[in-house]
Amino acid sequence: MVTMNRPEPCFDSRFCSFFRHVALGIVLLIGLAGCGSSGGSGSTDENPSGLYTSGTGTLDGNPVNDIIAFVQAKRIIAFSVTAGILIDGRITSIDDNDYTATVDVYQDGMLDQAGIGVSGAVTNGSRINGTLDGSGTAAGNFSITFDLLYDRGASDARISTILTPEFAGDVNNSIPNVTTTSWGSETVPLYDYAVIVPGGGICNEEGQYSIPDSSINIYVLAHSVVNATGGCTIPVTSDYTGFATLVDDAGLDATLIYAITNGTNSEFAVLAR
C-alpha cells in the first residue's frame, strides 16, 4: 500500500491567515499587470493632418475670417487672402491634444518674421486653435475648421485641365494686383501658368505635383519661377514647395487652392475654372 504525504498542518492560524492574504494579493497584482500590458490606459495623440477652411482669428491686431490651411506630414501652411498673410512651418510636438509649432510669417509675398512659436490645441478631424507669439503680423490667434473634402481623394484626372477650362484668378505674391488666367495641368504630373503683372510683364511659373496619398485631397508642389519679363520682379528660382487642393464652388472640383514658399517669398491663390 502506498502512503500519500499530507501537508503539514498549520498550527498558528494567525500566520496561515496572513500567508493566504499575501498569496492572494500577489496573484491579483500579477493578473492586473497582465491586463495592463495588453491594452494600456494612456491617451492617444491627436492627428492634425487635414484641409482646413472657414478659419477665423486675429492677425496683426485685425480680425480675419477667411483662413485656409493645409497640414500634411506635420508641415502647416495657412493663409488669409484678405490680410495677405501666410504662415509656414512645422508642428514640432503633440501631447494628447496640445501641440507646438515653429513657423515663418510672410506678408504680401515677402518673409516678415522667421522662427515664430505657435501653441494650441488640435482635435482630430475637427479643429485646430493656435496662438502666435511674435509681434506685428506674427502676433495673434486663429481657429481653423476641418473640411470633409480632405477625404475626397486626389488623382491626376481631378487636377487635369485637358478637357476643362484652366484655373484663373487673383494671385498673392510680392507684386501687387497680379492675376493668372492659365493655371493648367495638361501633362501629368506637370503644371504651368503665367502671372500677369499690371502695366506689362509676365512671371512664367511651372512646377510638378505629387500625390502623397490618393485617399486624401492634397497635392504636394515643387515649384519654379522660370522666366521674368517686364514688371515681374520675382527672382527666377526653382526652390518653392507647398500644397494644392481642389474644392467645390460653381461645380465639382471647380476651385483650386495652392500655397508655396521658399524661405524668402510666398505665393498663394484661390482660383476658379
Describe the structure.
The protein is mostly beta strands and 273 residues long. Residues 1-41 have low confidence and may be disordered. The protein is globular, with a radius of gyration of 29 Å. Helices cover 11% and strands 54% of the residues. The chain has 2 domains: 50-146, Beta Barrel (Porin); 151-272, Beta Barrel (Lipocalin), CATH 2.40.128. Strand 13 (219-230) and strand 14 (237-247) form a beta hairpin. The protein has 2 helices and 16 strands. Strands 1-2-3-4-5-6-7-8 form an 8-stranded antiparallel β-barrel.
Please describe the structure with a list of short key phrases separated by commas or semicolons.
single chain, 273 residues, mainly beta, Porin, Lipocalin, 2 domains, eight-stranded antiparallel β-barrel, eight-stranded antiparallel barrel, 2 helices, globular
Write the layout of secondary structure elements.
Blueprint: H1 13-39, E1 50-59, E2 62-72, E3 75-80, E4 85-95, E5 98-107, E6 110-123, E7 127-133, E8 139-146, H2 156-159, E9 167-172, E10 178-187, E11 190-196, E12 201-210, E13 219-230, E14 237-247, E15 255-261, E16 266-272
Antiparallel strand pairs: 1-2, 1-8, 2-3, 3-4, 4-5, 5-6, 6-7, 7-8, 9-10, 9-16, 10-11, 11-12, 12-13, 13-14, 14-15, 15-16
